[in-house]
Design a protein that fits this description.
single chain, mainly alpha, two-stranded parallel sheet, 7 helices, 171 residues
Length: 171
């Protein structure tokens, strides 16, 4: 469901057009070994990096190093990393259009079809245009402001209060 293998397939296409591009996998996951094998067998295995798990406080450096954030998951319950990427001012490419409120197709990123060609096309379009990346990045920051931790906590508290009030009135 994380659909990470599509990134290696897409990078086969991106790598041809963008000789300095790199693909970065951050974190540990159960199928990392399989992905590493796929990366090693690809044409650009030397440009695919696996960092392993990183402490949360170091993730800001990772986001700062990126030009584009790609999230290929087909199912995700929260998509926290999308919010983090948006707060970091990154343009975003994702596949699951129902996953996030912080990605609006054509405003701060692109929705891609679930195939390597379309993902590569969207990533390449962003890599080719520094001005578009900057524009999308600023829009990401603006959208992310609507979903700060403090703001989300306030919404949650308001929801709980509303539920409690409803239940109290029913009694």
């Amino acid at each position: 469901e994380k659909n990470l293998a599509i990134l290696i397939k897409a990078f086969e296409k991106v790598g041809k057009l963008r000789p300095r591009a790199k693909l970065l996998f951050v974190g540990d996951f159960e199928y990392r070994k399989k992905l590493e094998e796929m990366a090693a067998a690809s044409k650009f295995g030397d440009r695919i990096v696996f960092t392993g798990a990183l402490p949360r406080e170091e993730l800001g450096v990772v986001y700062a190093a990126l030009d584009v954030f790609v999230f290929p998951s087909l199912k995700d319950t929260q998509g926290w990393v999308l919010h983090e990427a948006a707060h970091a001012g990154l343009p975003i490419v994702l596949i699951d259009k129902d996953l996030s409120e912080v990605v609006i197709d054509g405003e701060n990123g692109y929705l891609a079809r679930n195939n390597a060609t379309d993902v590569a096309r969207k990533v390449t379009a962003l890599l080719r245009s520094p001005s578009l990346r900057a524009k999308f990045g600023e829009q990401s920051k603006m959208l992310a402001r609507n979903y700060s931790e403090k703001g989300q906590a306030k919404k949650l508290i308001a929801s709980y209060k509303q539920i409690i009030a409803t239940k109290t009135n029913e009694s």
